[in-house]
Amino acid sequence: MITPILKTPRLTLRPLRAADAARIQALFPHYEVLKYMVAAIPWPYPADGAKQFVDGALAGMAREERCVWAIVEDAAQNDGLIGCIDLFPKKADDQRGFWLGLPYQGKGYMTEAVAAVSDFAFDVVQLPELILNNAEPNVASHRLKEKAGATLLRINDGVAYVGGVFREMRWLHTAEQWHANRARFLCGKPERSA
User: Fold this and answer.
1) Which of 170, 126, 125, 171 is nearest to 148 (CA)?
2) Kind and range of the H or E element at 68?
3) Is 156 helix (H, G, I), strand (E, B) or coil?
């Protein structure tokens, strides 16, 4: 599947490209951004970490295993990303991931990005459901899932993240839940950074 350009009221989600590595390297390797990411992400983040991520993401996109969008703030009138959001339609679990640079958190941008990707996943790709995970202390992430109508399936103990070992919340988000909650999801207050 080709990663399309998606638009929201304030954002453009465009396919990730090789030139994005430098901007990712500047925004991503901050402990507050990374602490609730899976422990497979190295910390301290290496100098070529963003290039490795982009190379792997582009290879996965070429194989049509994933979609990776650069989140771009339209008001900035440039093409610089402020974060990324991924969709893994063929994975059995953890089918969506996202992050925003610290200066862009708490403004409701991720709500817009998640809505655009949910519309794409459920209405274009026609996935019946998504399985989503987050570290239990990542309150902002699980609030987005609750607001979208996702159902908490279980909590797994002892999962390693960059910031330590936390309980992991596993969620089921169905197309039916999304369509029932979409309007409420978009009219809520901006999420707060966790």
Assistant:
1) 171
2) strand 67-73
3) strand
3-state class of 60 per DSSP?
A: helix
Strand partners, 12: 7, 72
Tokens 């990712």 appear where?
24
The model's pLDDT over 1-40, given as tens digits with 9 standing for 90+, comes to: 899 999 999 999 999 999 999 999 999 999 999 999 999 9
Q: For the chain, what's the residue count?
A: 194
56 vs 74: CA distance, rounded Å: 27
Domains contained in the chain, CATH given: 6-186 (3.40.630.30)
In 3-state terms, what secondary structure has residue 42? coil
Separation of alpha carbons 105 and 99, rounded Å:
9
The label of the residue with tokens 């070429």 reads: 62
Per-residue model confidence as pLDDT tens digits over 110-128? 999 999 999 999 999 999 9
